[in-house]
Amino acid sequence: MTASTASLTVAAPPARLPLGALLLLSLGVFVTVTAESLPAGLMPEMAADLGVDPQRIGLLVSVWAIVVIGTSLPLTRATRRIDRRIVVAVSLAVFALANVATAFAPSYEFALATRVVAAIAHGVFWAIVIVYASSLLSGAQLGRGLALVTGGGTAATVLGLPAATALAQLTSWRVSFAVMGIGMLALAAVVLRRLPTSVVVPVAAGERAPLRQDRSLPPLLAFGIAGLLIGLAQFLSFVYIRPYLGEAAGIADGWASALLFVFGAAGMLGVAVAGTLADRFPRTALTATLLAFVIAFAALALLPQTTPVVVVALAVWGAGTGAMFPLIQTALMRAASDRLRDLASASIVVLFNVGIAGGSWAGGQLTADYGPTANMAVSATVVLLASGLTALGAVLASRRALERDAQAGERLGTS
Questions:
Q1: pTM reported for the whole predicted model
Q2: Between these two residues, 255 and 110, which has the higher pLDDT value?
Q3: Considering only CA atoms, which of 387, 359, 391, 229 is closest in space to residue 295?
Q4: SS3 of 273, please?
Q5: How many domains in the chain?
Q6: 249 domain residue, yes or no
Q7: Segment 386-408 mean pLDDT
Q8: Which of 202, 226, 259 is the C-terminal boundary of a domain?
Q9: Which residue, 69, 74, 163, 366, has most beta carbons within 10 Å?
Q10: What positions does the domain Major facilitator superfamily (MFS) profile occupy (predicted)?
């Protein structure tokens, strides 16, 4: 098996962080993640208007994940020679038009079809946006820059979804989808006009090397499996957090909502510190964050009746959730060779969504058979395995970097 090596041609990364470009990409992440989860927040309103059972509205979220899993990798390969700026802008525009179409859906089946189109665009956008952002950053800026971009996803959970839900309750669920779509269409136009080009330049056929010889594959495999396990552990427990708080911890509904706000606020804090951690401690930040997850899950499993422990553990879990995605994306971009960056970014999206699907299903079985405390215990074990894989990935990536630097030194010495 062979594949051409390639590099990203883009304007040289500036000495200062390109805040304007990164904020535009972060806004794209914000609106796409908000729209992804919107049917969950608008389930009663959409079900009543479209004349279906609320569970069928839930399928609009489940089908989304399935479509992302099935289309992200092939579409990433199909578009890898196209200017990344254009891919980002077009995927946002398609996403926008699909959301506007959802707003005018005359039936459930039409709404389902528009969600499939939006999910395809979402998968392409997420696979490309990290690679594109990385091409705008120097190595020393990578952690902070990617934390800013991926922070849009955390902001969507804490601010975007509640705001869109409130707008729907004041007006109509259709207004929420229409406003999101119009906003995304305007953002797509700004991205196309304002952001720099980023083009993959293929290497001549005679210089192609076998893909199996790419030394970045082993660390990427370790990080990828870790990403799947993280998604599995997260959704094993988070989907069933309300049963845990009510049944295992004995916390009233009113206080449960306050604790979920603490979780979200801690997630924003995690995003804020993730970039600095990734740049200052590139080998250990991700693994240390996952070990904090393990401690939080273990505390929730062992001491559900101790309210102060539950509060602190939820805050640690929330902060880790905010920090985890920028940290693992930064680790991937640092470990991957140029030709594998786009596929690495797409693969982590696919693997994380596989983990989400598996965790959501397995969490329901665990809760039904053993109670929600068991979910926390299993999540602690799964994340412990993931932390071992990220530590292994960091060691392998470091060895590859040393070998690459040595080879570069030899070439300079012979030139």
A1: 0.78
A2: 110
A3: 387
A4: helix
A5: 2
A6: yes
A7: 80
A8: 202
A9: 366
A10: 21-405
